[in-house]
# Entry
Amino acid sequence: MRRHAQPPDWLHAPGLKDWPTALAASHHLLLSHGMAVPVIRAMSPGAEVGITLNFTPSVPASPSPADRDESRHFDGFFNRWFLDPVFGRHYPADMVSDYIARGHLPGGMSFVQDGDLAIIATPCDFLGVNYYTREVSRSTRVPEDQNLPRTVHVAPKEELTDMGWEVYPDGLFGILTRIHLAYGPIKLYVTENGASYPTGPGPDGRVRDDKRIQYLRDHFLAAHGAIGAGAQLAGYFVWSLLDNYEWDRGYQQRFGIVHVDYATQRRTPKDSALWYRGVIAENAVDLP
# Structure
């Protein structure tokens, strides 16, 4: 399941808003992963077994202590809460303290039983990386007029994707190299990366999605830079092949490199698909 960098007012089914339930559920999702790894290996000898996690790197909006702490907390909530136990580091202590202080863990970590963390940390063959954007963290725990002025700004609205997400390829480089350096060499796959743009067929039937081509090009170059820095990146999967049903957004968001006419089911490769075909054939990215 893909989690979103900035949770809006709409919700995924079943629509619960309950921190104790969410934290217990996250633990049992990780536990089910750890229990499944040896079963898959036993049933499919020679198969690579891993886990895919969603990543949104965070940067503070200013150098203020409040913004730095907000960025730390977001990173712990979104990234480290899942990365750390998978790699045998237990749950991050600062986040456990935060959640207890905020009333999110009224029973502490009572849902963690003896042996759970060892199961979650069962060694995997690879880690899948889903990446779309970054988070610019601005504290709401101090009044805006008492915080330092912003020094990091999100791109203007007209430069965001149709999902309202900032295009930030440096974040892909950062998360791939961070995992490599902080959690040890492991085979990595970019299992999701892409952008939603509404571009449809023109009068000639061609879909000129130049923004998506630029998005993919820049992220491919970021991934290549991470390989050069030592990241063990073994593969990349664009999200997505087809325009499709995007969770609670329905059919409104078009991530595909192939356009789908939902009324007729006609498929039309976009310019990005033709460009991507060339990248695969040449094993190279053309520079703009």
